[in-house]
Amino acid sequence: MTPLVDSHCHLNFEPLNAGLEDVLQRARDNGVGHMLCVSVTLETFPEIRALAHGHLSVFASVGVHPNEREGREPTVDDLVGLAKDERVVAIGETGLDYYRSHGDMAWQQERFRRHIRAAKLSGKPLIIHTREAADDTLRIMREEGAADIGGVMHCFTESWEVARAALDLNFHISFSGIVTFRNAEALREVAKQVPDDRLLIETDAPYLAPVPFRGKTNEPAFVRHVAECVANVRQSDMDSIADVTTHNFFTLFRHAVPARD
């Protein structure tokens, strides 16, 4: 079987980082060939960059999560400069989150716009997080021309209408362990409809462990269970889902060079 790719995880977070070599070995044992370790602050970006330079199976992104308020605010120049690193394959995660943040969201929207502009300048695609903010997320993507660079709607939990709008903007749709949850029937219906060439899978580890590990620490090895669920709802098989999602990952994140044995 083609090795799977975990298109979104946080290997620098505890407890994953404390046992990183074991985490990476369990990923290999479960047929996971590559992982994208995603940035949420500029302060922790050096940790992510070091992980990517130290492990050929790990790639990095650079960005500041929409909910982060305490750290350094990124400029377009900051993001473009850091994205020049050969192991950085994406800008983000970025986007809008109105679930955890409230009040005037102008600061969050402006940060999102800067990430889109940086992605277009750097030539590296976007990783977008959206929660209870789909309309504004899509509006800003349109206004800033995000379709010119493309990217992925990570940990997708929205409706088919939102997915279709994102697809029209040249974005991929990535499903996490949430798609395996008992109450996620509507999301599984969305997973049935995403075109083969826009489908990705992820863990968002250490969060959102899939069934049968729900409630436990998530890790890249568990992306296999996401793949199995997606294969089932699409009436496909693991080999096909691995082929499709791995091909899509390296097509979208075109600066990612697969590790060779």
Could you explain the architecture of this structure?
It is a single chain. By secondary structure, this protein is an alpha/beta fold. The chain is built from nine helices and eight strands. Helix 3 (76-82) links the parallel strand 3 and strand 4. The two termini are 15 Å apart.
Features:
261 residues, alpha/beta, eight-stranded parallel beta sheet, 38% helix, globular
Distance between the termini: 15 Å
Which band does the percent of strand residues land in? 15-25%
The outline comes out as globular
Flag low-confidence runs. Answer: none
Main sheet: which strands, in order across? 1-2-3-4-5-6-7-8
Oligomer: single chain
Assign a percent range to the helix content: 25-40%
Number of helices: 9
The succession of helices and strands, N to C, reads EHEHEHEHEHEHEHEHH
Please identify the structural class as seen in this structure: alpha/beta
Give the topology.
Elements: E1 4-9, H1 20-29, E2 32-37, H2 45-54, E3 58-62, H3 76-82, E4 88-97, H4 106-122, E5 126-131, H5 134-143, E6 151-153, H6 160-168, E7 171-175, H7 185-193, E8 199-201, H8 223-233, H9 238-252
Parallel strand pairs: 1-2, 2-3, 3-4, 4-5, 5-6, 6-7, 7-8
Helix pairs in contact: 3-4, 4-5, 8-9
